[in-house]
Write a structure and sequence with these properties.
This protein is an alpha+beta fold and 227 residues long. The chain is built from 8 helices and 7 strands. Strands 1, 2, 3, 4, 5, 6 and 7 form a 7-stranded mixed β-sheet that branches. The longest helix has 23 residues. It is globular and about 55 Å long. The two termini are 32 Å apart.
Length: 227
């Protein structure tokens, strides 16, 4: 069984979530049209992650949504111990319309991540960029994803310059959903990409292997590549 470091290293849970959701992406596609609220997505992600973690850890690792005042909270619990928090993730859905509101949402989430940063475990922001062909008169999908990725990177950089008290990592954006459904009498495309932002406290010293050290390099992804 993997140890705590492997299960809870920054990026591992995000990668597990990405893989599990991608396998069922077509089942969820229409949900991205029906709601701009993140609670349904947090709940679905918790279910997928818990199924995987229970399989590998016999229930030792699990997560809850809307717990500990965070969208998703990750726990470890040995047989005779109380559950111990190992990390948090805040979830945000972003759409093409209302650019000013979108930027405000990005800034608010990043500010929240920094404020709740913890010296013992990472706090992550999971941004989901949602586009469908109803928006193509305003943005192409590629333009939308490129613009918002740049907005997120810019907001993270600005926050880091203001606080100067945390390192951060922004791995590359990943394909989360690419599906076609029939909606209101026409066939439409739905595309969703996801990007993870992780801030690390200056006191963050729990993870000390090569993978984590490469993430602590500002402006590099989890593989140490320049962004």
């Amino acid at each position: 069984m993997k140890d705590d470091l492997a299960f809870f290293s920054p990026g591992y849970i995000f990668d597990v979530m990405h893989h599990l959701f991608s396998c069922k992406q077509h089942d969820y596609a229409s949900r991205f049209i029906l709601s701009s609220c993140e609670q349904w997505l947090s709940a679905e992600l918790c279910g997928l992650i818990n199924d995987k973690y229970h399989e590998e850890s016999i229930g030792r690792f699990f997560c809850y949504n809307e717990d500990a005042k965070r969208d998703i909270t990750f726990y470890v619990c040995d047989e005779h111990d109380a559950p111990e928090i190992k990390g948090h993730a805040e979830v945000k859905l972003l759409y093409p319309l209302h650019a000013s509101k979108r930027k405000a949402s990005i800034n608010n989430l990043i500010n929240k991540i920094v404020k709740c940063n913890h010296s013992e475990y990472p706090v992550e922001g999971w941004f989901f960029l949602v586009w469908n062909s109803y928006y193509e008169g305003n943005y192409t999908s590629n333009d939308f994803f490129s613009i918002v990725e740049s907005e997120i990177q810019g907001a993270v950089s600005e926050e880091h310059e203001k606080t100067n008290s945390a390192s951060y990592a922004i791995p590359q954006m990943v394909d989360f959903c690419d599906s076609k459904i029939k909606w209101r009498g026409r066939n439409i495309s739905i595309k969703v990409k996801a990007i993870q932002v992780t801030f690390f406290s200056t006191n963050f010293s729990r993870y000390k292997n090569d993978e984590i050290e490469s993430m602590l390099l500002i402006g590099r992804d989890r593989h140490g590549n320049e962004i």
